[in-house]
Each structure stands twice: as C-alpha cells, then as structure tokens.
Design brief:
Layout (H helix, E strand, L loop, with lengths): L4 H8 L14 H12 L11 E4 L3 H10 L3 E4 L7 H4 L2 H8 L3 E8 L2 E2 L10 E4 H9 L6 E5 L23 E9 L4 E6 L3 E8 L2 E6 L41 E5 L4 E4 L4 E6 L3 E9 L1 H16 L20
Parallel strand pairs: 1-2
Antiparallel strand pairs: 2-12, 3-4, 3-5, 3-6, 6-7, 7-14, 8-13, 9-12, 9-14, 10-11, 10-13
The structure holds 2-oxoglutaric acid.
C-alpha cells in the first residue's frame, strides 16, 4: 500500500518515481528511499570480478572482509563430485531416494510474496527420468546437502575458508537447461561451486538494495526483489536502471565467493549441477540464527527447510 502522498513528495527529490504501481508501497520502500537520500541518490559503482587460483586463507579473508565476490579456480578439482554427478551415476546411487524440489513455471522458480517458497518431495528417479529425456521438469531440485542424500557430502570437500565456521549449511542444486531463480540475497557467506554445465549469475552489491525494489520486511520473501534483472521492466521499476548488474557465467570447476547479502539471480544455461556452502561467524552467525528463528516462527522456508517436508531421505515403499 502506498503511504500518503506527502511521504512521496518529501522523499522524491527527483530520484523516486512519483507513485506508480511500484513506487513507495511499503515501509521497506520508504526505508530504501531514505537510504538513497543518505547516499545522495548515488548508486554504487560497477565492480569487475577477479578470477584467482586457489587462495590461501589469508588472501581469501581479504575478499571476505571487503565483501568482494571473486571467482576461484581449482577448488573442486579433486572432488569426487566431478565424476560422480552424471545423471547415470546419480541414478545408479540414489534413484529410489526422496528429494526436495521447488515447483517451477516455465523454468522459473515459483515464489509467493505472502507464503514464500513451497518445497515438495519426490522420487529422485522420477526427476532424473525427465532430465534424461532432455526435458525440463516442472520443478528445481534444491536439496539440503546433508539431510536427504547425506552421501552427497562425501563427493565434496568442505573448503578450508569455512571449515571451522560457527554456522554452516549446504545445498545441492540440479536443474535442466533454462531453469532460473529470481533475484534475492542471503545473510550468510556463500561459496558456490559449479560442477556440471554452465550457470549464469547476475549480481548486485548490497549497497544497490535501495534501487532494487525489495519485498516488504513482513512479506513471505523479505530477501527477494520484485525486479527481474534478466528481463528488466523499467516502466515499473525505473530506479533499477541506475544500477547495472555484474553478469558472469560459471563453468564446471568454477567456484564463486558470494559475500553475505549480495543480490543474485541465476539461470542454468544447460543441464546443471551445483553445490554451495553457506557459513557465518560471530555477529553474522547471530544474524543468520535470528533470521532462521523469525522465519521458523512465521512458518516460512529456512536454509535447512527440513521442517516443511514429511519424510527425510526415506526410501519410498
Ligand atoms: O543456483 C541457483 O540457481 C541459485 C543459487 C543460490 O541462490 C544460492 O546459492 O544462494
């Protein structure tokens, strides 16, 4: 709901759309408008992403402390996942397991601004059938790595950068070509590994948030944006024209360090398998736990997501 027009006029200062369907509709929009004013309406500058070979912990910490994403070569070179995650091998090992998926529409993750995302359980073999036919399932396999198919964690090595983190979580992502996840951000640090196929990422720094039309704080998806970086609608979201995304394509073997709160939108360009580690220490770990607590209280999806699904890793009879 748009608050009264006075607010609109007070904060516009030439930077905000005057009303309109996606002008100031919530407290969040008002908050973002104030932050834009504090930044004198200047969005963050574009950044070039470096590619480096396996850094020492000390070198990695330089990027982490500055909240700068970086592409890292060679981190998964010795992972069994690199040979184990063909469709045929996955079928051999896990066809009868249950997996968790989020429904998709035309390859795009289904989200609901009121209720968040809804996971479903299905038999892994049925999901693989569709992928093996070269078709796109009507869902995206997004699997909490250590829960449903715990053996997946034997195929990866926990990176040394997050091995001793106070809070850690993982996910396995398997999708057909042209499956996409909308623009969103997470509180935790993220090291994202592309194992099979190529995946495109659009990234924006946290400082771009006031230009990205976040959902309201109290929505089911407070960490998601209403803006689509792949198909920008600048009539509805004129401010987003001022922030250009960083676009990159991850290839098998690439790892992307995605710092806490960086916005990201993804699309698998071909059949794709990925794995990521989220982690947090110190105050960030407290924030992650607080966010999980609030989401759990509200019945929304959380990183671990197990609470919503009926059975864990069960073999259907
Ligand atoms: O791989 C994807 O499609 C989404 C990845 C993602 O959102 C994440 O790692 O936080």
């Amino acid at each position: 709901m748009a608050p009264d027009g006075e607010v609109d006029q007070a904060v516009v200062g030439g930077r905000l759309p005057a009303g309109g369907a996606d002008g100031i509709r919530s407290g969040r929009d008002l908050f973002d408008a104030l932050v834009r004013i504090i930044h004198r309406g200047r969005p963050p500058r574009p950044l070039a992403i470096e590619r480096i070979a396996r850094p020492s912990i000390e070198r990695f910490e330089v990027y982490r402390k500055r909240s700068v994403p970086v592409l890292i070569d060679g981190l998964s070179a010795d992972w069994p996942a690199r040979s184990n995650w063909s469709l045929a091998r996955l079928r051999e090992r896990f066809a009868d397991r249950l997996i968790s998926v989020i429904p998709t529409r035309q390859g795009r993750l289904c989200t609901d601004v009121d209720t968040g995302v809804a996971f479903r359980a299905m038999r892994f073999g049925d999901y693989l059938d569709v992928l093996e036919r070269g078709e796109r399932p009507d869902s995206y396999l997004i699997e909490p790595g250590n829960n449903w198919i715990p053996e997946l964690s034997d195929d990866v090595h926990v990176p040394e950068y997050c091995r001793n983190a106070a809070w850690r979580n993982t996910r396995f992502w398997l999708s057909a070509a042209n499956t996409s996840a909308p623009l969103h951000r997470d509180v935790a640090e993220n090291l994202f590994f592309q194992i099979v196929g190529r995946k495109r990422f659009f990234l924006y720094p946290p400082a771009a948030s006031p230009w990205l039309y976040s959902n309201p704080f109290r929505s089911g998806l407070p960490n998601y944006s209403r803006f689509d970086a792949e198909a920008p609608d600048y009539d509805r979201f004129p401010l987003s024209r001022e922030v250009r995304p960083i676009e990159m394509v991850l290839h098998p073997g690439d790892a992307l360090y995605l710092p806490s709160r960086w916005w990201h939108q993804t699309r698998s360009l071909e059949l794709s398998a990925s794995y990521n580690f989220w982690w947090a220490d110190g105050a960030l770990a407290l924030m992650v736990r607080a966010a999980e607590f609030v989401k759990r209280k509200r019945g929304l999806e959380i990183y671990g997501l197990e609470s919503r699904l009926p059975v864990r890793g069960a073999v259907p009879q």
